[in-house]
């Protein structure tokens, strides 16, 4: 074994160590982005419920306003409360899912050493701001 081989092995070990640290940081970023995507998906679902509820209420109002036939006015009278119920259900699902997402987000603990050290320091002294 020559000196060059020993230095080469040490350099390889250092590179592998740096890559592991970088990989852990990448996982942290990926996890953080996954949480953001989940929050955005919940908001999109709520907007879809809102859009459907608004369409049902507007359709009901349109049927009542523009049709003289009792059948269409009755249909319109049914669409309005159905739209309100759909809107309420969408809001309820949004808030329940938001609470669940928030509980998972607050229970999440970082795995990289730097993030773990910061989290441990924050647990010891939550009033300290870095």
From TrEMBL:
<dbReference type="Pfam" id="PF02656">
    <property type="entry name" value="DUF202"/>
</dbReference>
<feature type="compositionally biased region" description="Basic and acidic residues">
    <location>
        <begin position="120"/>
        <end position="130"/>
    </location>
</feature>
<keyword id="KW-0472">Membrane</keyword>
<dbReference type="InterPro" id="IPR003807">
    <property type="entry name" value="DUF202"/>
</dbReference>
<keyword id="KW-0812">Transmembrane</keyword>
<protein>
    <submittedName>
        <fullName>DUF202 domain-containing protein</fullName>
    </submittedName>
</protein>
<feature type="domain" description="DUF202">
    <location>
        <begin position="37"/>
        <end position="96"/>
    </location>
</feature>
<keyword id="KW-1133">Transmembrane helix</keyword>
<feature type="compositionally biased region" description="Polar residues">
    <location>
        <begin position="104"/>
        <end position="114"/>
    </location>
</feature>
<feature type="transmembrane region" description="Helical">
    <location>
        <begin position="46"/>
        <end position="64"/>
    </location>
</feature>
<feature type="transmembrane region" description="Helical">
    <location>
        <begin position="70"/>
        <end position="91"/>
    </location>
</feature>
<feature type="region of interest" description="Disordered">
    <location>
        <begin position="102"/>
        <end position="130"/>
    </location>
</feature>
